[in-house]
Model the fold of this input.
Amino acid sequence: MRADPLDTSRIKVGKPKGRHPDKRLTAVGVRNIKRPGRYHDGNGLCLFVDDSGAKRWLLRTVIAGKRRDIGLGSVQLVSLADAREEAARLRKSARAGGNPLAERRRERVTVPTFKEAALKVHASHSASFRNAKHKAGWLSSLDMYAFPHIGEMRVDAITSAEVLKALNTIWLKRPETARRVRQRLRTVFDWAKASGFRTGDNPVDGVLRVLPRHKGDKAHHAALPYAEVPAFVTKLREADATEATKLAFEFMILTATRTSEVIGARWEEIDRDARCWTIPGDRIKAGREHRVPLSKRCLDLLDRAAKLADGGPYVFPGRYPKRPLSNTVFLMALRRMKRDDITGHGFRSSFRDWCAERTTFPRAVAEAALAHVVKDRTEAAYLRSDFFEQRRSLMDTWAAFVTTKKGEVVPLRA
Done:
């Protein structure tokens, strides 16, 4: 007579004797088992029933020479068929030398989304950013160009295809921004791999071979030919802009500094007696303090700026004395002057061309005036001076050239 499939009295509790069973349990039998104990299905898989009546699956197997029990979940969540399939997978992993217990621990760890990973990386790198603007820009670029595409995806599920889709939207339109986003993507995925959330190659590396090449080298800021700078400065003084804007713009041209360095200039950085402006390292691209010799014309501009400061900390205040000018103020001034063909930063190039073509000052002095870092390690090892006194002569000569009126002749140093 065939046994009733609902009858569980024939199923023995404890370790089976003799030949190992194979698929001994049935789905109906599993539902009807009530008595606490361990019920073997075969190949190490068994059903464990607690005194409370709760049922769960266990796999007993050998891992690295030691017998281990691995929980496979509750009967309410894992069917008999699924338990057998998972048990077979884990046994196969163990026989191949793997560690199913470690694998399951990793699976239980919550894998962050790309956005969550990026926020963690940004927080951990916060101390290394050059300034607040760089810190904010690092995250805002990902927020604008990466998060809409992959922000909500688990960091371990993102492939090169998704990265390519994100970069394609800006790769040719905004090449410099795209390169920065690509580097930041790589940093986040490197962190995810080091943290155990990803395996295999960085998905960013897979897109470089298929992205189109950018035309030419890194785009340079549009610059005005140095011969036209004196005429430009004359028009700048009459331009439709605030007094602080015009003073700051001319001061930037005369000192060959960057926009951010000028609009962030504070009175505590100015030593009028020494005719020197010392820019702290955290506001310099190179990351180290930079001394700027001030010409007589620069001192005149500072005297006029002091009347606008009204006791505020900034040399060139914005609408409010305690706040600096906007970082777009020079761009807007150029637009009002109908000079969209040049940029404020480009005047550094104008200065450098003038140094090379109209003076005999050494190249190292001109580079030091721009706060450029010597890239050659051997040369940098022997170069200890910042050529301050030589740069003072250079900047005085540049100021004389810039403030020259049409028809005047400016004597240049031999």
In short: The radius of gyration is 35 Å.
